[in-house]
Design a protein that fits this description.
By secondary structure, the protein is α+β, with helices and mostly antiparallel strands. It has nine helices and twelve strands. It folds into three domains: 75 residues, TATA-Binding Protein (2-Layer Sandwich), CATH 3.30.310; 93 residues, no CATH class; 117 residues, Roll (Ubiquitin-like (UB roll)).
Length: 340
């Protein structure tokens, strides 16, 4: 009998006992494991922000903020922080990076007066990659009164550079509220950007060149009263005639939240647009209040909201105006509930 030779290769199959980087479920499994470990040592996960964990109260209180595998810890007692580091190191083998100085491209510097955060290095990297490190700075991020549309200019043959630039500028708005409106306006055109859109984006870079280290300062000694400023730009979008909601929220004198976003529906009047902006502001205030409550921070005074539209204020305060607001979504009337 003639034997036919065959070639075989032996493979060793391993059963994974833990998640690995690169797998789709890796980040979820890591987060679940870390959450379980923190809950087991007495931490409470915030309902307002699942990435925030708190434990203790008064002098024994400390908070922990998680972003994937980067962790920030804050407490008034170093002994508590050291205890937590020992627990985490025993379970996960952590690397201690010391006092907060640089976190997710955000630079933080503390003093007795407060804390300053900015993204200077990140901003300079954007300017360097775009070739604008030696450009002449300007004083405004966009031409006053200019309105861009998807049909302006000639479509770029390679839109990837525009998309990358806008994506990086969007992250820069984490500490630069002064460019939030124009960057979000430019982000509407990432699907088919034109040369005029790119020119407008380059103007933002020239504006950043004038103050790359600009950021936010949080006072160490300040009141904990919440106040918000709400506004709306009625039917400002020339293509859809949708309005733009804008608000900024302060704790004392420190800016903690801001937004500039096009509304989901078309408003029939400026009063309706302002009222929708008020409702959005009220929802953000409610979230911040819940977050502060999880951190055992309370204010004796109710949050104050400033609005420059008398009709919107009347609708918010007076339930008799139901005939004029039947077409407005029920969700918008949350501002009435918050006032009550």
């Amino acid at each position: 009998m003639e034997l036919t030779p065959f070639h075989y290769t032996l493979y060793q199959v391993c059963k994974l006992s833990r998640s690995l980087y690169g797998l789709k479920q890796a980040s979820r499994q890591w987060n679940a494991k870390l959450t379980t470990a923190l809950l087991n040592v007495g931490f409470k996960q915030s309902n307002a922000d699942p990435s925030l964990f708190t434990r203790g109260k008064d002098g024994d209180f400390f908070a922990l903020l998680v972003y994937v595998d980067d962790i920030l810890v804050a407490s008034g007692r170093m002994a508590l922080i050291q205890e937590l580091k020992d627990l985490l190191n025993k379970a996960f083998k952590i690397k201690d990076l010391g006092a907060l100085g640089y976190f997710l491209d955000i630079e933080a510097s503390s003093s007795k007066d407060g804390m300053n955060i900015c993204q200077r290095k990140y901003a300079l990297d954007i300017l360097n990659d775009a070739g604008f490190l030696d450009c002449k700075p300007i004083r405004t991020p966009m031409v006053p009164g200019s309105l861009l549309s998807p049909k302006d200019g000639t479509v770029l043959s390679d839109p990837s550079s525009y998309r990358r630039l806008i994506g990086r500028l969007l992250y820069l708005t984490a500490t630069r509220p002064d460019i939030t409106y124009v960057v979000h306006h430019l982000s509407q055109f990432v699907s088919a950007p034109t040369d005029k859109h790119m020119i407008a984006a380059h103007r933002v870079l020239r504006y950043i060149k004038g103050s790359p280290g600009q950021g936010l300062f949080y006072l160490a000694e300040a009141s904990l009263n919440l106040k918000a400023f709400s506004d709306s730009d009625w039917a400002s979008c020339a293509e859809t005639r949708k309005s733009v909601t804008g608000y900024c929220i302060f704790i004392g004198a420190s800016l903690v939240s801001w937004r500039s976003k096009k509304q989901a529906t078309v408003s029939k009047s400026s009063s309706e647009a302002e009222y929708r902006a008020l409702a959005t502001t009220a929802c953000e205030l409610q979230w911040i209040t819940s977050l502060l409550r999880d951190m055992h921070v309370s204010s004796a005074n109710p949050a104050v909201v400033y609005c420059d539209n008398k009709s919107a204020i009347a609708i918010a305060e007076n339930h008799v105006f139901h005939e004029r607001t039947k077409h407005i979504d029920i969700d918008c009337h949350i501002i009435r509930e918050r006032i009550t």
